[in-house]
Specification:
This protein is α/β, with parallel strands linked by helices. It has nine helices and seven strands. The strands form two sheets. The protein has a five-stranded mixed sheet. Helix 1 crosses helix 2 and helix 5 crosses helix 8. The radius of gyration is 21 Å and the shape is elongated. GO terms for molecular function: DNA binding; zinc ion binding. May play a role in DNA repair. It seems to be involved in an RecBC-independent recombinational process of DNA repair. It may act with RecF and RecO. Belongs to the RecR family. This is Recombination protein RecR.
Length: 206
Amino acid sequence: MEFSSKLIEKAVNEMSQLPGIGKRTALRLVLHLLKQPKEQTGFLSQALVAMREDIKYCNNCHNISDSVLCEICANQSRNHQIICIVEDIRDVMAIENTGQFRGIYHVLGGKISPIDGVGPSQLNITTLVEKVKSGSVNEIIFALSSTMEGDTTNFYIYKQIADCEIIISTIARGISVGDELEYADEVTLGRSILQRVPFEKSFKNN
């Protein structure tokens, strides 16, 4: 792709680094920004810089937050004795959109995947185990995607807390095997939360 401006070329190259954005789409976005008032482009750049510099991670659940505690963990009307374990912020948003869960979350920051070089030590597992062993948790719900990596992560965590006297459940398999949580429709995902099953039953039946 030939560019008449090095500035445009650089902007397109940077934009095309985003997931799902090819060079042609990047060019279309850059030209759109070029047509907007300078103030509008300034607002966008300021928002991105502020997000990158000021974003925090919740001290309790590792969710993305504007402060040391995210809004969910800071909400005293939530049931802090029920923890839903998810991979990342997208899954928190997906479950929250169902309006069916009133506990809190624990964001792992990924899934165990030896092929990708991701081991348990690179995820937020230790803090979860500490919470469970502190005695402040009645139930944990596994809500990772139905993939080999998701099941491996579930089982690893289960082995770490199997001796604790808590309920260990997993979302019902209303979510197709291999599907990511964020792409599930709200009704199906909501039912999967409400109809969760004991975790031991989930892997003994496989």
